[in-house]
Specification:
Blueprint: E1 4-9, H1 19-33, E2 42-45, E3 48-52, H2 57-64, E4 70-79, H3 83-95, E5 101-107, H4 117-131, E6 136-137, E7 144-151, E8 154-158, E9 162-163, E10 174-179, H5 185-195, E11 198-206, H6 213-226, E12 235-241, H7 243-251, H8 258-277, E13 281-283, H9 296-303, E14 310-311, H10 319-329, H11 332-335, H12 342-345, H13 357-364, H14 369-378, E15 381-385
Parallel strand pairs: 5-6, 5-7, 10-11, 10-13, 11-12, 13-14
Antiparallel strand pairs: 1-3, 1-4, 2-3, 4-8, 4-9, 7-8, 12-15
Helix pairs in contact: 3-4, 5-10, 7-8, 8-9, 8-14
The structure holds adenosine-5'-triphosphate and magnesium ion.
Length: 387
């Protein structure tokens, strides 16, 4: 029934001179998201985007609800600039809209149309009241608003507004490197950073044969679930070879520090990869106090190996809040598959919650830190997930 979708975007308009870059990015992210669905032209006019549908507006609207930067979408009916035709369109929209009270709002950028905006409202309001006995007018708190826009190209009518994700188009803020484990938290951290315009690449530390092929497949699956939200629908996933580091960590004499040391290795490798890939921040799924490695003392000591900013979008979220988000974005079911992660294989019985930097440095002096990092990076492989 609706030949058009009206796509609204919000914060972009705040960005002044960068606006065109932002809009272009939003359009290309939209195109990537819709690539396998039939649709017509996508046009940009005066701070809005119109998408031509092919009898599939609901499906297209649902897809656009997963594109960052879009605030809401509305299915739109189009009529010629004739008040009788506009009334007929209004009747169709009313039949398709739940509610008992309404008001009409009209805008008339095309001043050559013979009726003024108040006259349009009056004419349509009267028409609706005459034909739909269940409806009354409420100008203050209506159940729905029938919107009419009179433009050069015709009259546009809509009543439904579907809220979308908001945020900024993925890629508009810059690139970040997500430390992606197989758990619940890190995919959600990735989602939230994409929401603020980060274009993501992922880095997973893989410890074959301590962890299985299946645990790697699970992470690849998580990357493919994140890809549709990412800039241009693609996701580059780096798989770093972590086995030798895990073996080395089993040898050191400070068992309680092994997780602290492991995290420091992860951040060092991530820092070097980020530099190579021109990523400006690292992103992790840490939530304050969740586990021993996420106390303030642990984060302090772990973070000391890098000067690259580390974003922790989940720092203030409780586990249940993270789980709710994971369910909402569709990663939860994959995250809870029972395959082991490198961190679960070697968890010491009593991990340090208040590691001391001097002890950590002493432990690391037993290891060939630079050599291990160089080897892990040299054996890092790249997978590209997405269309
Ligand atoms: P999640 O791994 O999703 O956080 P978790 O709570 O089981 O679930 P933690 O042990 O808390 O995992 O790890 C904290 C963070 O460290 C992760 O969110 C992730 O960013 C990073 N991380 C842990 N293990 C890995 C790994 N194997 N590869 C990449 N990053 C990892
Ligand atoms: Mg965690």
């Amino acid at each position: 029934m609706y030949p058009l979708l009206l796509v609204r975007y919000g914060e972009l308009s705040l960005k002044g001179r960068n606006r065109k870059t932002f809009e272009d990015l939003l359009l290309s992210n939209m195109r990537a998201r819709l690539v396998d669905l039939p649709h017509g032209r996508i046009t940009k006019t005066f701070g809005r985007i119109y998408l031509e549908t092919k009898d599939n507006w609901a499906e297209l609207a649902q897809r656009l609800q997963g594109v960052f930067g879009i605030v809401s979408v509305s299915p739109v009916l189009r009529r010629s600039l004739d008040i009788e035709e506009i009334k007929e369109g209004a009747s169709l929209i009313i039949q398709d809209t739940p509610g008992r009270t309404f008001k009409v709002e009209a805008r008339r950028p095309n001043k050559s149309f013979p009726l003024t905006s108040p006259e349009i409202c009056q004419s349509l309001g009267g028409h609706i009241l005459r034909n739909f006995s269940h409806l009354t007018v409420d100008v203050h708190r209506p159940d729905f608003v029938l919107n009419v826009e009179i433009r050069q190209e015709g009259a546009f009518l809509y009543s439904q507004v579907f809220p979308c994700l908001g945020g900024l188009p993925a890629g508009s803020s810059g690139k970040g490197l997500l430390l992606l484990s197989g758990g619940i938290d890190s995919p959600v951290a990735g989602f939230l950073s994409m929401k603020r315009g980060v274009s993501l690449e992922g880095l997973h530390f893989y410890s074959y044969p301590f962890t299985s092929e299946r645990s790697k497949a699970k992470v690849v699956e998580l990357a493919s679930l994140l890809a549709p939200y990412n800039a241009r629908g693609k996701f580059k996933l780096w798989i770093a070879y972590f086995t030798e580091i895990q073996k080395a960590l089993q040898q050191i004499s400070y068992d309680a520090l092994s997780i602290t040391l492991m995290r420091r290795f992860m951040l060092r490798i991530a820092t070097q990869l980020a530099e190579r890939e021109k990523a400006l921040a690292l992103i992790t799924g840490d939530s304050l106090g969740q586990v021993a490695s996420q106390t303030m003392e642990s984060i302090h000591v772990i973070n000391a190996v890098t000067t690259t900013p580390v974003f922790r979008p989940l720092i203030g979220l409780d586990k249940q809040e993270i789980i709710d988000l994971a369910v909402k974005i569709g990663t939860y079911e994959t995250s809870i598959l029972p395959y082991e992660d490198c961190c679960t294989v070697f968890v010491p019985s009593n991990p340090a919650t208040k590691p001391k930097l001097d002890q950590v440095l002493k432990a690391e002096s037993e290891l060939d830190v630079d050599g291990l990092i160089a080897e892990a990076l040299a054996k890092t492989e790249l997978l590209v997930v997405g269309p």
